[in-house]
Design brief:
Layout (H helix, E strand, L loop, with lengths): L3 H29 L7 H9 L5 H4 L1 H13 L1 H10 L1 H21 L6 H28 L3 E2 L2 E2 L9 H25 L2 H28 L16 H5 L1 H18 L5 H22 L2 E3 L3 E2 H4 L3 H28 L12
Antiparallel strand pairs: 1-2, 3-4
Length: about 325
């Protein structure tokens, strides 16, 4: 149990983070694409596609954070102390995004302001999440298990690159979501945006992947050590195939679900590649999941609650998306 419980919790937290990225990623993508709306009514239409389900997506972020605190308290304390500023930026931006969702539909004179808050909040939240990801993958300066990098130790060219990459990645999720949920002029704009976004996101994925083996942490070098690459090569090969299918789906009209599904798969493959690269480290380059784990009794106790909570979250998510499936008309209202 002492060996397997940390692995189980690592999987649970990874699953929660991936679900948040996939589900809230397209909502943040809508905000990133908000400046491309031709008028206020079109922005209303964009926001209405996600209005009934956006707040439920953040449940996965709470699950990931709470799971990290319960199962890996050392990593939780280290990550928050090292990444305090980008985490704070993300939370403030998510608050602005959420408030804008509620206030903009009711506002009269301040509609433009809340539209800008929706766009900027989404952009900064996406960028902060990318910075956090980049800083974790690159590795943190540790000494005796404590962070010694200072308030801006997370700042690096690589973390800035991943920050920008996540912004464009979420924009791709948002544009493919609009293809799925809209028709007419809005869908045409979404298809027009999706095609260059596919190329940009694939380029960023390639740049990040090429940079990984040369990081100071050297963790991702395992891809090229011994015969590991041949075992792990299906992930990048599937990512390349998925990118081709995504491009084809964006070019072909009539199959509105294919671009969104392909974009979700592309993110999933990228996430799988990162996990394979940093395993078994939770905080590279020195803290493994077993180093950071809480006592088995604590992990087992919290696991009982997870057994009840996780199916409830999955059921609610499935139900909410089932109820609000289908196209969203341009004149649909939000109350």
């Amino acid at each position: 149990m002492e060996y397997w419980l940390p692995i189980l919790w690592f999987g649970v937290i990874g699953f929660g983070v991936l679900m948040y990225v996939l589900l809230d990623g397209f909502v943040l993508g809508l905000g990133i694409l908000a400046p491309f709306a031709e008028d206020e009514h079109q922005l209303d239409h964009m926001m209405n596609t996600a209005a009934p389900i956006w707040d439920g997506n953040e449940t996965w972020l709470v699950l990931g954070g709470a799971g990290l605190l319960a199962a890996f308290p050392k990593a939780y304390a280290l990550i928050l102390s090292a990444l305090y500023l980008p985490v704070l930026l993300m939370l403030i931006a998510l608050v602005f995004r959420g408030v804008a969702f509620e206030f903009r539909f009711k506002a009269q004179r301040a509609k433009l302001f809340w539209g800008a808050a929706f766009a900027l909040g989404s952009m900064f939240a996406a960028f902060a999440q990318g910075v956090i990801l980049g800083a974790l993958v690159e590795g943190m300066p540790l000494q005796a298990g404590k962070y010694v990098g200072g308030a801006f130790g997370w700042f690096s060219p690589f973390s800035m690159l991943t920050g920008v990459a996540v912004v464009f990645g979420y924009a791709l999720l948002g544009s493919t979501w609009l293809i799925l949920k809209t028709e007419g002029r809005m869908q045409l704009i979404a298809r027009t945006l999706t095609r260059p976004l596919v190329l940009v996101v694939v380029a960023f994925m390639g740049l990040v992947s090429a940079w990984l083996p040369f990081l100071d942490s050297r963790i991702m070098a395992r891809w090229f050590e011994g015969g590991n690459f041949w075992w792990l090569s299906p992930v990048p090969l599937l990512a390349l195939l998925n990118a081709f299918l995504l491009w084809r789906a964006a070019m072909r009209e009539g199959r509105d679900a294919a671009p969104f599904v392909s974009a979700l798969c592309f993110f999933g493959l990228g996430f799988a590649g990162l996990v394979l690269g940093i395993w078994p480290y939770l905080v590279p380059p020195a803290m493994t999941i077993w180093d950071a784990a809480s006592p088995p009794s604590s992990q087992g106790f919290v696991l009982v609650g997870l057994i009840v909570l996780l199916p409830a979250i999955l059921g609610y998510t499935y139900w909410s998306y089932s109820v609000f499936k289908g196209k969203v008309a341009a004149d649909a209202g939000y109350h």
